Amino acid sequence: MNAKIGRYSGYIKPLFCLVDLVILNVTISFFDTNINQSLLFSIYVSILWIILSIKNKFYDIKRFSKVIQILASIISQFLIFGLILYAFIGFFKQPIVSRLEIGKYFLAVIVIVTFSKFVLLYLLSRYRKVFGGNIRRVVVIGNNKKTDQLIEIFRSRPEFGYKFHRKFDVKTDEFDLENCFNYIFENEIDEVYCSVAELSNKQLREFVSFTDNNLKILKFIPDNKDIFTKKLVFNYYGYVPVLSFREIPLDDSINKFAKRAFDILLSLIVLIGILSWLTPLIALLIQLESRGPVFFKQRRNGLDYREFYCYKYRSMKPSNSANQATRGDSRVTRVGKFIRRTSIDELPQFINVLKGDMSVVGPRPHMVKHNEEFASKVDKFMVRHFVKPGITGLAQVSGFRGEIETNKDIINRVKYDIFYVENWSLLLDIKIVVLTVINAIKGEEKAY
Q1: How much is the pTM?
Q2: Does the structure show a pLDDT above 90 at 124?
Q3: CATH 3.40.50.10490 fits 136-225, yes or no
């Protein structure tokens, strides 16, 4: 058996946590908060910060984590910590505490913790790249496009801390499992990456047995020719291992609360700051061109496939046809062309958001009859309904909005929607909102 020497650095997460605790406890001294029980406050914020960090997996940052994922983790952490901070005043009966100074302290902590986190991560990446520390030695089993892409990442991104040693081609006559195991053992390899497509069940079992018995980490490169993601999640029910097909971030109550708070805040800003004066103006323009209702509502399917009425400004002449507008559709009015191209017609859906039928960001809801059609034709189409539909979405800012003209359009839309469902973060929502505003200002080719 090979000892587990140097594979992980067990001090990185505790160091990051210790730095944050020092920041929390030292920064408070720079603000005139009138807290008369400083020791109690220190114990309170320290313990709850640690508990919250464990719950949020705040320090579970991978070598390959993206900046957007780290920022999303920071936002999630501080949304709850802010509530914890102000709860101290009421819970411990601190009426003389300055809420303004506590607010300043909170903002200062956000800035300092965020800055220190990125500085420490940068220093760690430089340590890996320049000094070759905190390294994991890896081998790849298999020879195909995906294994080559993975090897290129190992070689081109030294800051990740992976040192690639060798690729084993299992398709050649020279490949021998025993020789492979000896190489892994003799070179003190830490992680083994296997291409599932190229190994038999027997070979896979032997790799699992070898890595378990020699304290090696075994990871699989899936044969995923399908366009849809597959995020398998492993859990234990008692002592029984259970594999879930996917993990949905918005099933977590904290994430759900953060997203709902974001939706309510943004919808109130839009409804009060924009629609309060824009609606009378749009109503006048619509009425001048064609008599009929200002708003248009249509049945759509939302969360868990439940039906709701989706609101829009009317952009077409009143008719009995319920079909979606197509390119050059004669029913679209001149005012309608403008509000559709700029996405202004979608703004009343912030009412849906405030009601809770929709979210600001999510998979776009289709007409009920289209849902029934696509569900029978497009694999995994219904996964979109694990979350609330959105006014805008990842698919829309990625070029797949408007009319479904080809099968490729709906397949790609579903691909992006499933990625969003499985990889949601508050920062991703903010990014999509910003891109939506930019696209609305520029105008889009498929907005008709």
Answers
A1: 0.60
A2: no
A3: no
